[in-house]
Amino acid sequence: MKAIRLRHPAGYDNLRLEAIDPVEPGPGEVQVRVRAASLNFRDMLVAKGFFPTFDGIIPLSDGAGEVVAVGEGVPEGEGGLAVGDAVVSTFHPKWRDGHVERGELDNAPGGPADGFAAEIVTRPAASFTRAPANLSHAEAATLTCAGVTAWRAVITDGAVRPGATVLVLGTGGVSLFALQFAKLAGATVIATSSSADKCDRLRRLGADHVINYRETPQWADAVRDIAGGVGVDHVIEVGGPHTIGQSFAAARTAGHIAVIGAAGGFDIDTMPFAIVQAKRLRLQAVTVGSRADQLAMVRAIEAHGLKPVLDREFALAEIADAFRHLESGRHIGKVTLAI
Q1: How far is CA 147 from CA 59, 129, 276, 288, 296, in A?
Q2: pLDDT in tens, 229-282
Q3: Which of 39-53, 76-90, 93-107, 201-215 has the least mean pLDDT?
Q4: 148-285 CATH choice from 3.40.50.1240, 3.40.640.10, 3.40.50.720, 3.90.380.10
Q5: Would you list the DSSP string of 71-95?
Q6: What is the predicted pLDDT for the residue at 271?
Q7: Contact between residue 244 and residue 259 where contact means Cβ atoms under 8 Å apart
Q8: Single pTM value for the model
Q9: Beta-carbon neighbour count of residue 329 at 10 Å?
Q10: CB–CB of 238/178 below 8 Å?
């Protein structure tokens, strides 16, 4: 079978399509025929060497396919898997539910553990949950990182309720899932983006208000005006140092800020924490989520018929081109691989 391995020194040109032998599942393991994978900002950082990994790692945290073999001791039912089940990978296989220590989150796929840019993988059963019955493999493959992160930010940690106001930034995977989940919860969503085309797409996806941040650089003021002059209840903060100051300003007193990433860059070392104290803001860092979060998200997606937003599909051997497309910022929604 074929898999992508990232060879040292890291870089897109060292993503190699190689032949590897499949491994039969042992006790507690399942073998999965991977049909699709998706790319995340984090995967791009791994491929470029920003996050060091071992030579020859199989990249990508997000994969979906069907179970083709099951080892001894794997239960069936809601928490188990059987041959023929459509499945999607989990980001933190050891995080079942509730509290988890940082030291336990040491085997995320795609770095530090092998990921899913492969035709066949054998992993512990906890590395998967069932996939939503209403989604294709490509759609399901978008859920592991971006979907669960947004679910954790909006539902588990944010506890968004009908009538709340939620601000999402941009048109990346987490932001679009957050928009969709916030609308499912009955919230009013304000979204920002950089072009008229992307703003129109956000409206079609359900955003109640859209701000072009190139036309309105001080978008926090516009957000507060839309939110009755007091600010929003929740901010899904994905931009990092370049946006977090305005996110703080856009939030209402005692607002909830889900701190997720730094898609805008890492070159600013200070953040305006005085406003955090003055407004009694609640900062909640999000590091994807648990298996229980993923199963709850799967049930919600099925119940509401939600469909992830897909941008463009590449072949497995075209993974370097897929990363370049992701890095260009031209995408709206998830970039996927057909495997």
Answers
A1: 18, 13, 27, 8, 11
A2: 999 999 999 988 889 999 999 999 999 999 997 655 555 555 567 788 789 999
A3: 76-90
A4: 3.40.50.720
A5: -TT---STT---TT-EEEE-S-TT-
A6: 56
A7: yes
A8: 0.95
A9: 13
A10: no
| DSSP annotation string for 295-319 | HHHHHHHHHHT--PPEEEEEEGGGH
- Beta strands, E only, the chain: 2-6, 15-19, 29-38, 62-70, 86-89, 120-124, 128-130, 165-169, 188-193, 209-212, 232-237, 251-259, 282-285, 310-315, 334-338
Classified by CATH at the fold level, domain 2-142+308-338 comes out as Quinone Oxidoreductase; Chain A, domain 1 (3.90.180)
What CA–CA distances, in Å, run from 277 to 95, 220, 224? 32, 18, 18
Residue range(s) occupied by CATH 3.90.180.10 in the chain: 2-142+308-338
Cα–Cα nearest to 63, from 38, 28, 97: 38
User: What single-letter DSSP state applies at residue 10?
Assistant: P
DSSP annotation of 7: P
Query: What's the pLDDT tens digit per position in 63-116?
Result: 999 999 999 999 875 567 999 999 999 999 999 999 999 999 999 999 999 999
